[in-house]
Amino acid sequence: xxxxxxxxxxxSIFSTIIFVNCSxxxxxxDKGPEQVLENFTVFETDxxxxxxxxxxxxxxxxxxxxxxxxxxxxxxxxxxDKLSSVLKSSKGKIDSQNNNxxxxxxxxxxxxxxxxxxxxxxxxxSKDKKIFTDSNVKIVRKDYIITGTGLEATxxxxxxxxxxxxxVLKR
Length: 171
What we know:
The protein is α+β, with helices and mostly antiparallel strands and 171 residues long.
């Protein structure tokens, strides 16, 4: 009986290790990340003005693929050196070749005015300085709530385009 229990436990742990290692190989190839850093910080500037800064509890870095996997991260967006919004997600990645980043889990963007965007995943395209998603979205503003599917917006949510099924509810 103990042998059977031990064998089942061993197989369970072994299969978990294989699954975790296989998922890393998809992003990093056979060798995995070259570096794993805690309390990771990176930022982007334009002519000396901060565009955004990103902090993560953990970052797994691959120099070969130029991909950085992120856990528990936050991005602060700036407009003329003033904080305009904060993006939060538990999982994501950044492409260090072009500074585009992607969330892979529930995501919120909270503006300095207190407006909040909720979605399941999001991407930020650095050259456009815009955020995009194809997931369901909900934007909570002071006087109304907007829901829909798909979004293109500035990080401060001052310009928002909802792609489909737009509904506006007054509060």
